Model the fold of this input.
Amino acid sequence: MHTYIKQLLYAAILTGLSGCSLVEVQNPNVTDESFLGTPQSEAIWLNGMNRQLAVTLNNTVHFTEIASDNYYNNSSLSNKVFDIPNILYSDLDVDNMQRSIARLSQMADYGLHNVAPASRETTDNIKADMHFIGGYAYLIGAELYENLPLTAGGPVASAAERLQKAIEYIKAADALQNDPVKKQQYALALARAYYNLGDKQNAVAYADNVVKNNPMLLLQVAFDGVNGVSNTMQTYTFSSSTNTYAPLPRLDFLDPKYYHVGNASTDQKPIAILKGEEAFLILAEAALGNNNVDEAKTVLKSLLEVVKRRPVASIDAKLAQRKGNRSDYPLLATVEVKFDKASPARSGFVLDRQAGNITVYTVSGSSVTEADIDGATTSDQVLYLLCLMRQEIFMSEGRRMTDLGMRFPVSQVEQQNNKNVNAEHTQAIIPSYIPGQLGMDDFTYDKATGLVTMEVDMNKVLVQNKTADRVLPLLK
Amino acid sequence: MKLYKVSLLAILLWIVNTHPLFAQEKVHGVVKDAKSKNTIPGVSIQIAGTQNGTSTDVNGNFLLTLAPVTQNNGVTLVFTAVGYMPVSKVLNSADRTALLIIEMQEDMVKLDEVVVTGQGLNVSKRRLSTNVTTISAEQIKHLPVNRIDQLLQSQIPNAQIKLSGGQAGSTTIIQSRGLNSAFANSTPIIYVDGVRMDNLNTAPTIGMSLSGGISQGAATSALADIPVENIERIEFINGGAATTLYGSDAANGVLQIFTKKNGSGKASFNASADVGREYATNEYLYFDRTKDLLFQDGFYNRYSVGMDGGNSDFGYSMGASYNKSTGVLIHNQNQLEKIDFRVGFSAKVLSDLTYESSFSYNNQGLRRGRNGNSGGYSGLWFAEDGASKIIGPGFNPVLDELSEAEFARVKSFVDSAEVLQNNTSKVNRFTTSQSLKFQPLKELLIKGAFGIDSRQQREQSVVSMAFNRHIRSNNVGSLSNYDRNYLGLTLDLTGQYDYRINDFSFLTTLGGQLFRTEDRQIAYIGQDIRDGALTVSQAATRTSSEFYAEVANYGLFLQENIGFKNRYFLDMGIRGDGNSAFGSSIGVQYYPKVGFSYILTSEPFFADWNPKFINTIKIRANYGVAGNFPTPFANERTIAFDGFLGGQAATFGQPGNPDLRPEKTHSREAGVDLGLLNNKVSLTVNYFNNRTEDALFVVPPAASSGEPNVLRNIGVISNKGWEFSTTVALLERKDWDVRLRASANTIDNLVVSTGGAPSFNLSGMSSRTIQIVVKEGYPVGYISGNYGTFGPEGTLVSTTPQSFLGSTLPELTGSAGLNVAYKNLSFFANADYQAGGYLSNWDKQFRINYGASTEGVPAEEIAINGTANWLNYSQLFVEKSDFLKVRTVGLVYAVDKRFLGNVLKNLSIGFTAVNPLNFTASASDPEAVMPGGAQGQGSATTGGLNYAAYSAPRQFIGSVKINF
Done:
């Protein structure tokens, strides 16, 4: 009997000892040390950067669209205060945007300094791509934020400093790259960086290169709905059942830019980050800055040719019924639109989506005609058309807020973690000419006469404030 | 090795073979309450110094087999039962032939009750410096509630248990002694017969749409599927000194369920039926018509059977039940169906070796309606929050203003939207505990136990094309499956040596414990799928995802309890833990405790004085440490991978932290237990001062780092408070017995330090709306939002964002219970209350957004500014969350045994109302909270944000129970 007992106890002790293997766990994740130097690690990291670029656009484009006059958030999803615009440094969306831009540049640095050197398969073209994406992160950071640290937790740098950093990265990319098409893309990115810096000479030089060599240049960032990176702008302007975002009625014909047919996850449309049109817009603005109105008109007419050559699609958009906080959006093609109270009533801006398929401008569209350009005689009239074309061409691409002279503040979480951030950095830049209380999105709709009147024409406002900081940099 | 021959079969054969070896003798008896003379079922009877024993049957009878007469000289039987003073009976020769009648005195102070939880092995409460709450099967047997957490509502004096929502299987928020952590949920660790249960401390992480704590889900509870069958008793201890022996896992306390493993004599059977109706709790609805849109009257039924029996060598007990509730959402969208089964065995393998086993199985299926704000259609959001304006064809959101014809259109739309939903959750859960108790010496008891908890949950959410078309979405149909498979393994070996010399007694406990858990979550999703196709393989696009967490915790503990003259006790202990989730530079973590207990009334002078008004005084104080271990694998720096455009995509994973350690709650407690007025009144008073050091905060690093939130040991949280609980025997007569239980607990909670880190949110939406925030100098989880200042004209003048709008934690909580017995008729009522907390009634604020109401906003503001400022004066929608809720009221009649004949032993008929009465300071239900929030941390939760969540329904249930 006692033998049994002893055996049982022995068994218990043995179980306890053999339990040592029970204290071990296997981490299913990959540590950074074990990743570096593995086959194709540099290519996988680069693809991760491409993914992060898409994520960054997702975090920025739709917010800047509602912060501008392009769209009104007609639902309770997304951000309800950027529209007003009311942009606080404590807003988590401000932090998310800053964080995702920083992650993109941090990924570039880690890729260039850790991943690429450790891999024997790294090529110059891969390093060029990493440099370019890093440079693009600094570029959009400079366009969207007045102030941002250049490094993790580091001193706060001005937009100009960050644009110089962007130029440095993109030029480094250019030096490594041997694909001519990519080099043209880099040229346009440099033109844009110099444009933002107000460096007319360099902006024109790089833009001219694009206009001459590849006017139809198009660099788009792809999304992958199956892997969790859907195009949020597409979701909010087309896929969402509650028609989240509503366009300004005079831009109704440009909505949506992105759409799906069938399964939304597998049909996520890309967002253009660099396209040939921008080179024309830079050249036209530079021409106006040089008081050369005729040249500006010529450039804008050439630009119309590019826009016309861009693809269009025919889609069913019957579900866009604009029901939400405001349910008085015009829905009929017969509606005429006045850009503001003083403007004439014009037709062709509002689509009747119930009448059948609509035409979608997947890259660029514009209401401006050659006749409009011909009819513009003064510098300001041409400038107005330039502003309108910039707005229409870049619709849904996250550029308008910057063009209006608005900038995001450094986030509260950054301030709480970074002693270099002072109170001034935490203030958003919202110029005094920006009407508050949803004024940019406001309109009246007289259903009886079928007339929509915009509260304000922000392109007129821009022309009136062309000397203001942060807008129309090549006019200075 | 011979060793392996020792199988279960061999043990059983051996039991059978050992029976004839002795010339056995049997002792018959009955155990009665000394006052009422009613018989007491479930009394444990043990031969002192051995593991031999039995228990009384449903009528208080017992039959105990003894060794031959010659060996029985001086045999002492020890009778113990929850709520009674133990009785020791030395057997004389006459007792072996006559019917032994034992009378037990009720013990409201429970000074000599033997408890296990937190002590390694059996310890009399007298020796303990900490408080242990015990709940007997008797106390809960008439509650027709089929969830362990709901069953315990109002029953544990200093723990508050709140259902977070009314959807089937919704989680409960359990808090005792405030909130120790801003990282882990406050649910205590649950043990069943020494085996650690899954209590869902690892949150769903891959987007479980039904229970993931995201906006449209209702967090699912893993407590909801622990069977409530066959429970013998429950013990609860608070986190701190009481849970030190549980080490890195028990800062929130431990709740242990002990199951029945034997009966008495030949098989005794029981059966019960609970049948009733369920009604929606409508008083928190804003529009009268919402109840007509979304709710139905439901049916509840539950049938259970059980049996037990055995003798001193072998015992068995079994319980099984089937439960179905249709729920109160139309089209049975909250239906719950549940099968529970539990069986327990005990066997005397050798004269000094006892084997015990329990096994339980649960099968649960439930349905869920969409709730919260999912952006598309969800019932409450549609009806109560004004979203009807934008969903589907769009309606006037002011439901009560609609004409009958208009309302009929809304109703038709909602009816289709509800019937087209198909969200289900299924759980299969097996739990077993196996233990051996070995008592080689009278003074030495060794117990080894192991067990597993295996819980498989599958959630399925079908969003049909028909549903999408109905709500005018252009999305294709989808089928989302989420599996969460949990496996927990517990190993435990504990030895206890009980040594007495002169006036000293030493109780030395040494043990080791290991548990490991595996949590595997898998998502497999099909998109673009035909309606009616319910396997992912039929979808045009198929995706999957997986999450895996594994943790092992292992520790040794040593406890010494020294007694002097059976009234002075010193209690010391330490546990050392290793844990796979600790950082590489941390090593073993130690948890010490020390305390004393002093029974003043055991002093001879007190016995001489013998005052009537005060009978028991126990004074105690203690200090101890318990912990919460960090998230598994968060200690390692990793690279994260995902797919992107057909290839692998790498990015920064978690930042890692070699210094990651458990957060430790240091508790200091002093208390007194009193028995007053001939022990008709028991009163316990505690003061606690808990301080969580190295609190784990998930904090955001600088945005410029590009890194996501990181887990760091940087916080300090303080909880202080007083706890009072009393039981009063108001009336004790031959025919009457009236008892009142009441408790009151104060909580003073403060985030003492965030270690320089910024504030962060636990749940809620965004800083521009409402968040539940953790910030230095404030209570954990306060409501943060825009505070609007109004001018003399009544219009908004300014707004201060991120203002403190109120703490979600109540400052006062408590419960009360009343039991009245008159002859065979008994009445019971249980209630909970809280005061001093706040909630954000986001439903009310959100109604402004789509024009459903402007209630709560000054008319002048609306007249001048319209609703444009609706987000800028959130304080107008913050309400006190004070409540008094009556959880159960019931009446039970036990039919006189004279009328039962020979077959039936007992027959009782009862009627119970569950959740019958709610008295609340707020317009919304303080308990129906938004489950999580898209930007929240997920795990720690305080509630406090009410948004499109269902209230728990009312139930009126008739019950019949029989024993035969």
User: Anything to note?
Assistant: Chain A touches chain B through 100 residues (CB under 8 Å). Chain A has a mean pLDDT of 94. Chain A has one domain: 39-475. The two ends of chain A are 102 Å apart (CA to CA).
